[in-house]
Write the structure tokens for this entry.
Amino acid sequence: MNNTTSRLNDVFFYGLYMSPDILTSKAVEPRDPRIGFAAGYRLRLGNMATLLRAEDAQAYGIVYSLTHEEIDRLYTQQGLDMYVSEAVLVTLDSGERAATLCKNLLIPPEDNETNPDYEKKLVQCMRQLNVPTTHVPT
């Protein structure tokens, strides 16, 4: 069992961090990509993206394997430190289920908060990665 700082953790991404190019630009190696969905969650886009608990909903994204150092590198930036780690069970395209870490906002965006530019980039990213976009709010 690997108890070093280089051990890998499955992390579920549902926003622009699904992009391997963005992760690589932040000195993060996107290992073992797997498309999947978190049941019981819905995507909420405001100035930033988050997942909200919602019965009968699904939020699609990608699971990557990252080190704790890489996860910290992504979320210690100004503006992203409001995200907290949560455990989320993801059903992968293979049918397997994976226990993952997921970063979410504790305080969701206000109802009137939108970011059309982010939404456009997100849908484009998801299409490039073959991630279903049916759950993206418009």
